[in-house]
Amino acid sequence: MTTAIENPAESALDPPPQAPHDAELPPRHVATDALARLFRPIRRHLVGCAILSTLGSAAGFAPYIAVAEIARVALASTELASVSATLWTWTWIGMIGAGLRLVLVFASSRLGHYADARTLHDLRVRMIRQLGSLPLGWFRASGSGAVKKRMTTDLEDMHLIIAHALGELVGAATAITVGLGYLLFVDWRMALVTAGVLLVMVVAYRIAMRSMSTHMNRLLTAEERISAASIEYADGIAVVKAFGTGGRILERFNTAVRQHTAALGAWAAETRYSTALSRLCSAEVTVLGVVTIAGLIFVHNGHLAMAELIPFLVVGVGLPTSIDPAIQGSLGVRKGRVAAGNVDELLSRPPLPEPVRPASPQGHQIELDRVTFSYDGVTNAVADVTATLAPGTITALVGPSGAGKSTIASLLPRFYDVTDGAIRIGGTDIRDIPTTELLSSMSLVFQDVMLLRDTVRENIRIGRPLATDEEVQAAARAARIHEVITRLPDGYDTVLGDGGGLSGGERQRLTIARAILSGAPVVILDEATASLDPDGETAVQAALAELAVGKTVIVIAHRLHTISAADQILVLDDGQLAERGSHEQLLARNGRYARMWEAQLHGRSA
Ligand SMILES: Nc1ncnc2c1ncn2[C@@H]1O[C@H](COP(=O)(O)OP(=O)(O)OP(=O)(O)O)[C@@H](O)[C@H]1O
């Protein structure tokens, strides 16, 4: 989740910028290693960029030093003519320095952007390839939000580090070093006074940032609750309005807002002095005041000539302006390091292994041979399940929630690979079938129906891109959805949004049409959990019957009456196969299935 947490005192005091919070941070050494690995191909560019930025920044100080020296020399001399050569020399040094700075900073920025474009191009290509080769189960477990974040925000943060933050940080550090070095050369006591003000600022800043991480968890939790309550309220607005149940959601929302405000307030109270001090010390007027007072005391005591005060007024007062870019740069580097850790983690995930010696299935009989699978390597979600699913038959997977039905269904298209045992299609282990061949032999009709933002026609045609319009319509007719489509504003050319314009049952029939058109011999179907109206239910059942003809069909069933005609029913319990048989056989057995059937008949859950 992206957060908009800012330093609480920001409105009043404009405190330090936001750093990546600890909740986001992978271990520091892991992220640093990742950064080194990902930047290896452009390390020469980065070194070049840093050197150019250092030289540019150093050259950029020449005009300030020149102005200070011209004033110092002019003030110290009684006759200007005698020092005119020196004054001209400093004038030239200042002008050349300013010119050089422009050229060097421009060159550094170009080099940084060139390296950035190259790296991001390579990373995008590698990431897309990697996404194409990762097990589908990873996408299910991670969610599209995480994938999107890596492809966008994380890459943007890496752009920041290569093209901006590194140059800014090195440039600002150089400016501070050169400036302080020059001031030390002029007068070490006054230089220490100037450095002292900056040091107080840095320490105060660090104190303010340290307490940020302490409060971050509370703030993040509150933000998540606010966001969840808002989504819950918006999603359920119809129910809220119809049944007036909005009060409880609003109460949760208000509580979360109160917690957020309290956490923000606590942070603001704790950091108010450090933030104010940090801002105070970084203000030019503060440095000017301290330098002038200290300088005049030194002049008064005879430790400093009046002319030597000039460099501190010109160069010293300008130093705080370099602190902010240095802080921004270091935050950019920190964020980039976190992003690099995330990108590297994605790139180093083991891809779904492709077969060394690919083989093709002979027929479409599915055999589950002592299939065992564990998500976490500790508990088995499916254990020792053996069954044969013949072509032209329907097999229903039933059982209580968490019994392992979806897990078995997701092992078939290799969303995950079995931990033990094997799954064979047409006598060939699915791990020996090339992934594209395996997936094209299956139609997956899941509950979270995936409709693309495209026309109805193209949505059906996905399964067979070269199908003619007549074939698309025939599939739609078979799936009992043709009539519905012709009633849409543009018929088959109507562009679908996120399923907009179609009911749940209609969306499911559209995906059934897609599966019918694709003609894949294996069909894996997750039956809708939400009840459809009787007409919709009849239409879906009829569409499924069309789809099933001559195929090996696996149905994850939630309502038993919809699968009572299945050829075999596998009853799962806690990942194990508890019973198997036809509806009649299982009822006669009077075991678990019979109890589930009874319970559903009487509207209770098993
Ligand atoms: N991505 C996952 N990571 C870890 N554990 C999981 C994951 N998906 C499912 N599980 C666990 O595996 C077990 C079997 O879950 P599965 O979803 O296969 O059951 P199910 O019978 O399909 O349940 P439901 O009818 O509620 O969908 C459960 O204990 C579940 O918590």
TrEMBL record:
One of its GO terms (cellular component) is plasma membrane. The chain crosses the membrane at residues 46-67, 87-108, 158-184, 190-208, 280-299. The keyword Translocase does not apply. Its main location: membrane. Residues 47-313 form the ABC transmembrane type-1 domain. One of its GO terms (molecular function) is ATP binding. It is found in: Cell inner membrane. It comes from the Bacteria. Residues 366-599 form the ABC transporter domain. Residues 1-25 are annotated as: Disordered. It is a multi-pass membrane protein. InterPro entries: AAA+_ATPase (IPR003593), ABC1_TM_dom (IPR011527), ABC1_TM_sf (IPR036640), ABC_transporter-like_ATP-bd (IPR003439), ABC_transporter-like_CS (IPR017871), P-loop_NTPase (IPR027417), Type_1_exporter (IPR039421). Pfam families: ABC_membrane, ABC_tran. The keyword Transmembrane helix applies. Belongs to the ABC transporter superfamily. Siderophore-Fe(3+) uptake transporter (SIUT) (TC 3.A.1.21) family. This is ATP-binding cassette subfamily B protein. It comes from Tamaricihabitans halophyticus.
